[in-house]
């Protein structure tokens, strides 16, 4: 049997819902925890920590994160989890609250260990078939695309489907940034290993990692829910008003990986600075940045911010999705010689 390590690259799903009733209140946040746990069981992960605020609930999972807003669910999971098994259950649970699905977006990078993935994650076309079989016909504005890069091992997979076409006028002003980093600096990665017999649990060791790595300075306004795995690995969710951020770290040498994801607002221009601070925490050899609806100006600012860390932009590609708008995929590698 081939020996492989932990698959850090996450699969990410965003589900948007709508109601005929204008007074939805807390909407999906009314879902009871037992029902959520049942869906997560299908996906093959569990909740290890949770934190909510007046806008949304966040869960750190044994494999990444879940965010529940009144009309939106974002779930990302890594390893060999069965993320897409959550599509049908979430759609049905939402229907019990009179919320119907209006848009879905599935994204992922290129797996480090593709041969270790179960069906349908063995090929993007299989994932697309699975998704098309499990979403209602009303989501008719569909597109699947693999956005390439000059780094042959890195491409960005996107499937988007919506009941309506995306128009710039729909802009809520929010956009998403998904950063994937590999080949982490070994000294920095070591900070995400637990110290044996230190008397700490996953929460207190996670809190310590958040502080010693300066993750808490990426967005000082964010309330952080963090967790350290044993013997290594780290996850956090940040809550800043209605905006979330999330970081996941697989620090093992040979397949090290970290991700930073954040929702940004066009009315708030601190994103490039946050991406820069997040990349600095890990000193990666390779970085990819996928932005959805950020606009070319913000993409350029992010590019300049990453390049200021002795990295060089190797490629930049865009694609348009009828229900999701513009996705830009940029890749970077370090300029420094690594020992
Ligand atoms: C869940 S975390 C972060 C996930 C994130 N997508 C990533 O890879 O960066 C994964 C790291 O935690 C470690 N880990 C330790 N115990 C784990 C567990 N019970 N479940 C998942 N990962 C665990 C893995 O070896 C890996 O280093």
UniProtKB/TrEMBL annotation:
Site feature (Cleavage (non-hydrolytic)) residues: 63-64
Source organism phylogeny: Eukaryota, Viridiplantae, Streptophyta, Embryophyta, Tracheophyta
Stated name of the protein: S-adenosylmethionine decarboxylase proenzyme
Catalytic reaction annotation: S-adenosyl-L-methionine + H(+) = S-adenosyl 3-(methylsulfanyl)propylamine + CO2
Cofactor binding note from Swiss-Prot or TrEMBL: Binds 1 pyruvoyl group covalently per subunit.
GO-annotated biological processes: plant organ development; spermidine biosynthetic process; spermine biosynthetic process
Database matches in PANTHER family: S-ADENOSYLMETHIONINE DECARBOXYLASE, S-ADENOSYLMETHIONINE DECARBOXYLASE PROENZYME 4
MF GO annotations: adenosylmethionine decarboxylase activity
Family to which the UniProt record says this protein belongs: Belongs to the eukaryotic AdoMetDC family.
Domain of life of the source: Eukaryota
EC number: 4.1.1.50
Pathway(s) of this molecule: Amine and polyamine biosynthesis; S-adenosylmethioninamine biosynthesis; S-adenosylmethioninamine from S-adenosyl-L-methionine: step 1/1
Active-site residue numbers: 64 (schiff-base intermediate with substrate), 78 (proton donor), 235 (proton acceptor), 248 (proton acceptor)
Keywords: Autocatalytic cleavage, Decarboxylase, Lyase, Polyamine biosynthesis, Pyruvate, S-adenosyl-L-methionine, Schiff base, Spermidine biosynthesis, Zymogen
Pyruvic acid (Ser) modification, residue list: 64
């Amino acid at each position: 049997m081939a020996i492989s390590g932990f698959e850090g690259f996450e699969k990410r799903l965003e589900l948007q819902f709508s109601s005929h009733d204008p007074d939805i209140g807390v909407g999906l946040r009314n879902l009871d925890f037992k029902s959520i746990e049942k869906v997560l069981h299908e996906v093959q992960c569990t909740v290890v920590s949770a934190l909510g605020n007046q806008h949304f609930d966040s869960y750190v999972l044994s494999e990444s994160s879940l965010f529940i807003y009144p009309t939106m669910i974002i779930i990302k999971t890594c390893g060999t989890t069965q993320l897409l098994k959550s599509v049908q259950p979430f759609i049905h649970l939402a229907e019990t609250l009179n919320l119907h699905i209006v848009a879905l977006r599935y994204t992922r990078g290129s797996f480090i260990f593709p041969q270790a993935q179960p069906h349908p994650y063995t090929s993007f076309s299989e994932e697309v078939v699975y998704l098309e079989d499990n979403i209602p016909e009303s989501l008719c504005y569909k597109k699947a695309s693999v956005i390439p890069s000059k780094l042959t091992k890195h491409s960005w997979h996107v499937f988007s489907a919506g009941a309506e076409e995306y128009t710039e006028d729909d802009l809520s002003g929010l956009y998403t940034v998904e950063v994937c980093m590999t080949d982490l600096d070994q000294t920095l990665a070591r900070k995400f290993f637990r110290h044996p017999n230190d008397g700490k649990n996953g929460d207190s060791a996670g809190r310590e990692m958040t502080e010693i790595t300066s993750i808490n300075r990426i967005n000082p306004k964010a309330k952080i829910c963090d967790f350290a795995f044993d013997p290594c690995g780290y996850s956090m969710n940040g809550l800043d008003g209605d905006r979330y951020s999330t970081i996941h770290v697989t620090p093992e040498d040979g397949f090290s990986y970290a991700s930073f994801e954040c929702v940004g607002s066009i009315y708030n221009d601190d994103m490039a600075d946050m991406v820069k601070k997040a990349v600095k925490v890990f000193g990666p050899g390779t970085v990819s940045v996928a932005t959805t609806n950020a606009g070319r100006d913000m993409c350029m600012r992010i590019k300049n911010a990453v390049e200021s860390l002795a990295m060089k932009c190797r490629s930049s590609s865009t694609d348009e999705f009828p229900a999701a708008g513009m996705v830009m995929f940029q890749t970077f590698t370090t300029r420094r010689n690594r020992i």
